[in-house]
Amino acid sequence: MLAPIYLLPKVIPVCFLLHNTEFQGLWLLRTEEEMKEVCSAFNISKEHCTKYVQFRNTFNLLHAAASFISVHQKSIGVVGVSDKYGKCSWARYPALCTLKHVDSLPNPDPTDIAALDESATSGDEDAGSWVTIKQDPNSDLFVFIGQWSKQKGVDLIADVMPSLLEKRPSIQLFASDLSLIFMVGSAEKLARLMEMYPDCVFLKLVCQLGF
Questions:
Q1: Which stretches are annotated as coiled coil (predicted)?
Q2: Angle, nearest 10°, between helix axes 154-167 and 184-196?
Q3: Which residue from 26, 45, 56, 175 has the highest number of Cβ atoms inside 10 Å of its Cβ?
Q4: Which residue, among 44, 59, 55, has the nearest Cα to 7 in the 3D structure?
C-alpha cells in the first residue's frame, strides 16, 4: 500500500480491501540505522515513513494504508470482505486505529437462486464449454479457485474427492491454483484424479509440477 504515498504530493483516491489482515508487512524500526536501511529498501523518505507507515517501532504496510486513507479520505474507502470481517479486523488490529470506521462488501444472498433471465444457461454448462470435463447440466459441479493452502482445506478436498467420485458419478470437480503451489501433495493427488476421471475432473495449475 505504498503506491499512493510514492505519488505524493499528488493525492489519488484509493480503495483498500481488508483480507488476510494478519499479514501486515512488518520490518523493525528500533534504531536510526534500521530506519535508514528500511526506508532505503522501499525508496521512501523518512518523513513519509514516519507520517504514514511507522506504527510504534515497526514499518507496517497495513498501517500505511489506514493512515493514508485517514489523512486524505477521512477514513472513506476501507472495506472488509464481509461485514463481520471488517468489524473484527478494525477491533483486533491496532494498526487500523487511525480509521474512524470500516465498511463492508455485501455478501451474496444464498436465497437468491433465480436465473438472471429466462434464457440464462446453467453454470455447469458454461464451465464445461471451456474446460475438458464433460458438459452435463445435471452434474454437481464443485469449484475451487484461489491460493492452495492448508487453511482453505485443499488437503481435505484431495482426500475426500476420490471416495465422492466413486460413489456419486454426477460430481464434477474444477480446481485452479492462482498462485505458487504450496500443497504439492494435494496437487499430485488431484492430478491423478484428472487422469482417472477425465470427464469429471479438471485441474489447472499456474505453477506446473512436472506431471
A1: none
A2: 20
A3: 175
A4: 44
Contacts of 4 (CB under 8 A, 6+ apart): 11, 12, 14, 68, 72
pLDDT tens, residue by residue, 18-74:
888 887 888 999 999 999 999 999 999 999 999 999 999 999 999 999 999 999 999
- For the chain, domains (ranges, CATH) are 3-104 (no CATH), 123-205 (3.40.50.2000)
Place of cell 464481509: 82
Q: Which cell goes with 63?
A: 498501517
State the amino acid at position 117 in one-letter form. Answer: D
| Percent of the chain's residues with pLDDT above 70 | 79
Distance from CA of residue 82 to its chain's centroid? 13
**Region 148-160: what's the mean pLDDT?**
77
